[in-house]
Amino acid sequence: MSSTLGTLYRVTTFGESHCKGVGAIVDGCPPGLELTEADIQPQLSRRRPGQSDLTTPRQEADQVTIYSGTEFGRTLGTPIMLLINNKDQRPQDYGEMSQVPRPSHADFTYQMKYGIRASSGGGRSSARETIGRVAAGAIAEKWLRQIYGIEIVAWVSAVGDIEAPEVALETISRPEVDANLIRCPNTAAAERMEALVKEVLAAKDSIGGILTCVCRNVPVGLGEPVFDKLEARLAQAMLSLPATKGFDIGSGFAGTRMRGSRHNDTFVKKTARLGTRTNHSGGIQGGISNGEPIVFRVGFKPVATIGMEQETADFNGDKVLLAAKGRHDPCVVPRAVPIVEAMAALVIMDMTLQQQARQGSSLV
Ligand SMILES: Cc1cc2nc3c(=O)[nH]c(=O)nc-3n(C[C@H](O)[C@H](O)[C@H](O)COP(=O)(O)O)c2cc1C
């Protein structure tokens, strides 16, 4: 089982849904960065459950404590341990589900692979595991912002079949995204999305959606061809998130329907560097960032645990009717926004440190 991500900025997450706490150990954070819990908490609070009636009612404050790796509010360059206590555990909600693998959840595969599994709440497959990622990502983001002015903003661009119109990639900001509960910066689309989530929740069902993410001011040259191309690392990071089903970048799958003459991002002189007129490449060419905004999308499925009764089978193969208890998200995309931002920050941070190491040793 791999719970560690990254080469030079290495993040190990720990914790299960209903254990005493979850978090991360970050190894490789540069020394001297001003860092306190206040730098990390805002993203955790955007991720936390119980934020609104569109998300799971599980109540967790998700307060982070930095246990190591800083002194007098600055990083020491040593491992940073981040711990967040679990408070609202209710393993009793999962009594029946311990005998019945939830359809399309991870109960069956974890049990088959390990021969044992956390008996409630999905264990490591729970979205609570992503807390450590968000905390570690917030540190990476702070460093990337300070050193390069990098800005990472994700938003909900679709819920079910409701799609938001395109947004201004140069200016879209987190306050705009957070202006409504669904985290879609287009108010009209947001209202329709919220109504759909409420309708689905009332029917004891769930629904999926898409996040779009833009990373601005990413320097040219990040990405390690051939196996650690920047888009390959981003795809791996995003598809390691629970409930993700799709990743595309730049023109993505839609680009397959275009002609090369329209799809090519022709070069043009920009203020500080050579840039491109269009950005169908999504900011990455040959696996290396080209200085244009990195733009990608992540598709999330309708979550598996639903209150509606479904015919399935228990671990013995006997037919059962399962109506899930417990507290669950009818649609994960509003809470996934800071998680996707964190994963982007973790990848870009690691790739930046690798490129700095190359530049520091280069003879050309
Ligand atoms: C923010 C977030 C919240 C989630 N909440 C739930 C939930 O309440 N109920 C559920 O069944 N799955 C939830 N999931 C998804 C499951 O963790 C995931 O579907 C499960 O681990 C199986 O993995 P897979 O869907 O990637 O195959 C959530 C995912 C995210 C990102």
Describe the structure.
The chain is α+β, with helices and mostly antiparallel strands and 364 residues long. The chain has a single domain, classed as 4-Layer Sandwich (Chorismate synthase, AroC fold). Helices cover 28% and strands 21% of the residues. The chain contains eight helices and 18 strands. The protein has helices at 37-47, 107-114, 130-148, 174-177, 187-202, 230-239, 260-263, 333-361; strands at 4-5, 10-14, 21-27, 64-66, 70-71, 74-75, 80-85, 151-159, 162-163, 209-216, 244-249, 267-269, 274-276, 284-285, 288-289, 294-300, 310-313, 319-322. A five-stranded antiparallel β-sheet has the order 1-2-3-7-4, with helices on one face. Strands 9-8-10-16-11 form a five-stranded antiparallel β-sheet. Strand 14 and strand 15 form a beta hairpin. Helix 6 (230-239) runs antiparallel to helix 8. It is globular. The mean pLDDT is 95. Bound molecules: flavin mononucleotide (FMN). Residues 56, 105-106, 122, 125-127, 241-243, 301, 303-305, 328-329, 332, 335-336, 339 line the site of flavin mononucleotide.
Element layout with pairings:
Elements: E1 4-5, E2 10-14, E3 21-27, H1 37-47, E4 64-66, E5 70-71, E6 74-75, E7 80-85, H2 107-114, H3 130-148, E8 151-159, E9 162-163, H4 174-177, H5 187-202, E10 209-216, H6 230-239, E11 244-249, H7 260-263, E12 267-269, E13 274-276, E14 284-285, E15 288-289, E16 294-300, E17 310-313, E18 319-322, H8 333-361
Antiparallel strand pairs: 1-2, 2-3, 3-7, 4-7, 5-6, 8-9, 8-10, 10-16, 11-16, 12-13, 14-15, 17-18
Helix pairs in contact: 1-3, 1-8, 3-8, 6-8
Flavin mononucleotide binds next to helix 8.
